[in-house]
Write a structure and sequence with these properties.
Helix content: 55-70%
CATH topology of the largest domain: Arc Repressor Mutant, subunit A
Largest sheet: 3 strands, antiparallel
Number of domains: 2
InterPro entries: DUF4364, WH-like_DNA-bd_sf
Low-confidence stretches: none
Protein name: DUF4364 family protein
CATH class of the largest domain: Mainly Alpha
Order of helices and strands: HHHEEHHEEEH
Mean pLDDT: 88
CATH architecture of the largest domain: Orthogonal Bundle
CATH superfamily of the largest domain: Winged helix-like DNA-binding domain superfamily/Winged helix DNA-binding domain
Structural class: alpha+beta
Pfam families: DUF4364
Length: about 180
């Protein structure tokens, strides 16, 4: 898991570019960190160092969307990856491809159904629920609630049942 040689460092950076490209959606730092650590691809400190270096080299950028920072591979990153793809061991590519099959759907669902809350006052929280389809916000709901517990529960329910809740809400709104 520790990276020692410059060749291993290059492989791991290329692998990060590969993961970001194959996910096909922007991901938060915590999402990429969870994926890399859960699958023992590299350790936390190496990952953070490499993400910083990839950003500095403009192979990836961080974009703000809905008050969150997302990592996105740039055209320069894609070109570099395509040029040096053969430097990533095929066994590692296969491993990542297999892991991404299960993770990709989960991350896309998270990207489509977002929920977050912020504290406004001592006992006032703003909950923001959103549906994004094809990069466009199709539904956005903000509501004030009286407790942190309510805010957390609403966000959790939206994350777990957002598709159903959104469908039901639309049906209620369009019924004559």
């Amino acid at each position: 898991m520790f990276v020692h040689s410059s060749q291993q460092m290059a492989e791991k950076k290329l692998l990060l570019l590969y993961i970001l490209k194959e996910l096909e959606i922007p991901v938060t730092q915590s999402q990429i960190t969870d994926f890399v650590l859960e699958n023992d691809i590299m350790n936390y400190f190496t990952l953070q160092l490499f993400l910083g270096e990839l950003k500095e080299s403009e192979f990836v950028v961080e974009e703000e969307r809905n008050y969150k920072q997302y990592f996105v591979i740039t055209d320069k990153g894609i070109s570099t990856l395509n040029y040096f793809l053969d430097r990533i061991p095929s066994s590692m590519i296969k491993k990542v491809d297999d892991l991404l099959l299960s993770k990709k759907e989960e991350l896309q669902k998270q990207a489509e159904m977002s929920a977050e809350y912020i504290k406004l006052g001592d006992s006032d929280f703003l909950v923001k629920l959103q549906v994004v389809e094809n990069g466009q916000t199709t539904f956005n709901l903000s509501l004030n609630v009286a407790s942190n517990k309510q805010a957390r529960e609403i966000c959790e329910n939206w994350r777990n049942n957002g598709q159903d809740l959104y469908g039901k809400l639309i049906n209620v709104l369009i019924i004559d």
